[in-house]
Design goal:
Structural class of chain B: mainly beta
Shape of chain A: globular
Number of strands of chain A: 8
Radius of gyration of chain A: 18 Å
Strand content of chain B: over 45%
Shape of chain B: elongated
Oligomer: heterodimer
Order of helices and strands of chain B: HEEHEEEEEHEEEHHEEEEEEEE
Number of helices of chain A: 3
Largest sheet of chain A: 7 strands, mixed
Distance between the termini of chain B: 25 Å
Chain lengths: 151, 402
């Protein structure tokens, strides 16, 4: 009996941090000393934490919800398909201020972070478009200026 | 009178046209052709947008550049260079194709919640570009225009990488250090944070709240090679002359008699530079004694020339001015005695004299100072010894050519 309790306890210790482990992180929006940005965290169980904040710290929106396991898997599949893990770490349009996106993933231990500053590339646009379709029911759209024409 | 009015209107029109005329660069930074002590900054913004966009940018830029900036000389803070700023805003489609390279290309988009942006520009060269949001904070276009003029942001920022559990340094302060060494502390929830660099908490380039400051303009000039004022704007060539006039009291005394006389003093100083000037000083003072039929009239005339020295005792940014002087000259004394209306005897003598004195003035405006007090020791060198005379004056100084 004691061994069973100990096993359950150890399993719990191992399970809960793994369950809350963030596997997708997106920061999109202001890259200026002013303005707002969006912060989206998805953990391995599909729990989503979303906030929109001013750079000064004030929270403008906050939401918690979940996506399905298959939706999460489809994000990783899209990342593989678009070659996300082979992209450069940073793409910089060379502007002062403006907007950008940081998108980071941990796909079964394979980690990758890509940042765009005042520019966009098709691979990230495609990936974000998929995520935005999943976020539509929550009326959230990850936005970093990707639809506006760039110089 | 009419000719004068026409001349004034024509010259005013000329300067307005000159300041608004299209320039050969997107950022024109140059000394005024007619006055090297004036630096002109002209920014040309070509707006890819509506007529309303052009009007909105124009309004913000007029407000942004509303104040003039003064660059003081290092050796004399009262002298220096004036900076004027103008923004010429036109619709991109109205700019001839062969001139477009001399304009910044600004694309206007609706306010989507993202900040506007701009490529850092350079002085006296082709235009840069940016994407600006409509209907944003009133200083935003001013902030972005300063980027077009070459100014970087003055804030630091950090991004927290949740998956890597690490903090990325996004922007750092130049010069270092960042505030609190680490700038700010991002977390898993607040993954991007930023704060103005030390000393830039109220700087338009650290945040968009403040107005454009003279420091911002000086920064643009420093980066463009116009950081200091030319010598000719600071040297004696631009020194002014002073004319002083005021009432005086002279205590005249010799071994036989002493009395106080009232009169007036005038002086003219040609300033060689901010510290030294050549002065000529003259005064006339009189004293009449009457007792019954006896009447004695004493007249004293002094004239001297020498050096005036202003040690800048109270600093450059005060309205008080202290000066000391040393002259050499002559003093003429005349005495006339009448008894019962009949002249009894005249006396007149001229002797070598000196003048050592100090004065304290208060600057009323650029043209006029009040000489609050001037005290002089005026020894007269007689054949049988030195006569000690004192003079106290006050009056008005008129600054000529300032």
């Amino acid at each position: 009996m004691q061994k069973t309790i100990l096993l359950i306890f150890i399993a719990g210790i191992l399970y809960f941090p793994a369950a809350s482990q963030t596997v997708i992180h997106i920061n999109a929006g202001s890259r200026a000393p002013y303005g707002t940005y969006q912060n989206l965290l998805i953990d391995i169980s599909g729990q989503v934490s979303y906030q929109r904040r001013e750079v000064s710290g004030t929270i403008k929106d906050s939401l918690a919800f979940s996506i399905t396991k298959s939706q999460l898997d489809s994000i990783f599949a899209k990342a593989e398909q678009t070659g996300f893990f082979q992209l450069n770490n940073k793409y910089d349009g060379g502007f002062a201020d403006g907007a950008g996106i940081l998108i980071a993933m941990n796909s079964s231990g394979k980690k990758k972070t890509v940042q765009l500053l005042n520019t966009d590339i098709p691979q990230i646009n495609e990936l974000v478009a998929l995520i935005n379709r999943m976020l539509e029911p929550q009326k959230i759209r990850i936005y970093y200026g990707q639809s506006t024409p760039q110089k | 009178m009419n000719r004068l009015l026409v001349a004034v209107l024509l010259s005013t029109g000329y300067f307005i046209l000159q300041s608004c005329a299209t320039q050969n660069h997107a950022n024109t930074i140059e000394r005024d052709k007619d006055n090297v002590c004036i630096i002109r900054i002209v920014v040309q913004l070509g707006i890819e947008g509506t007529d309303d966009d052009v009007a909105a940018v124009n309004t913000q830029m007029q407000d942004c550049f509303k104040s003039e900036c003064f660059i003081p000389c290092e050796n004399n803070k009262e002298k220096g260079c004036k900076v004027t700023m103008h923004a010429i805003v036109k619709k991109w489609s109205d700019i001839p194709n062969d001139e477009k390279q001399n304009w910044h290309d600004i694309t206007m988009v609706d306010d989507d919640g993202l900040p506007s942006n701009a490529h850092l520009g350079n002085p006296n060269t082709v235009g840069s570009f940016g994407q600006w949001r409509r209907g944003v904070h009133p200083h935003t276009y001013c902030h972005e225009t300063m980027h077009l003029l070459g100014l970087p942001d003055k804030y630091c920022s950090r991004i927290y990488h949740v998956i890597e559990d690490s903090i990325e340094i996004e922007n750092t302060c130049d010069p270092p250090p960042d505030p609190n060494i680490n700038c700010c502390n991002p977390t898993a929830q607040r993954t991007r944070c930023g704060t103005p660099c030390p000393g830039h908490e109220h700087d338009l380039m650290g945040t968009v709240e403040p107005d454009l400051s003279c420091d911002n303009i000086r920064d643009v000039l420093s980066r463009s090679g116009f950081g200091s004022c030319p010598d000719e704007c600071c040297s004696s060539g631009h020194a002014y002359d002073e004319f002083f006039v005021g009432p005086s009291y002279l205590h005249f005394g010799d071994k036989e008699q002493s009395f106080g006389a009232y009169g007036g003093t005038i002086s003219y100083t040609h300033n060689l530079n901010s510290k030294f000037g050549l002065t000529i000083d003259a005064g006339y003072y009189t004293k009449t004694d009457k007792q019954d039929d006896y009447k004695q009239k004493n007249n004293i005339f002094t004239i001297g020339a020498g050096l005036t020295y202003k040690p800048n005792l109270f600093g450059m940014n005060t309205k008080l001015d202290f000066a000391s002087h040393a002259y050499i000259g002559m003093m003429n004394y005349k005495s006339k005695v009448e008894i019962g209306g009949v002249g009894y005897g005249d006396e007149s003598k001229s002797v070598l004299s000196a003048n050592l004195g100090v004065s304290l003035s208060y600057k009323l405006n650029n043209k006029i100072d009040l000489r609050l007090l001037q005290v002089d020791y005026i020894p007269a060198f007689l054949s049988d010894g030195t006569q000690n005379n004192y003079r106290v004056s006050a009056g008005v100084e008129i600054n000529l050519g300032k």
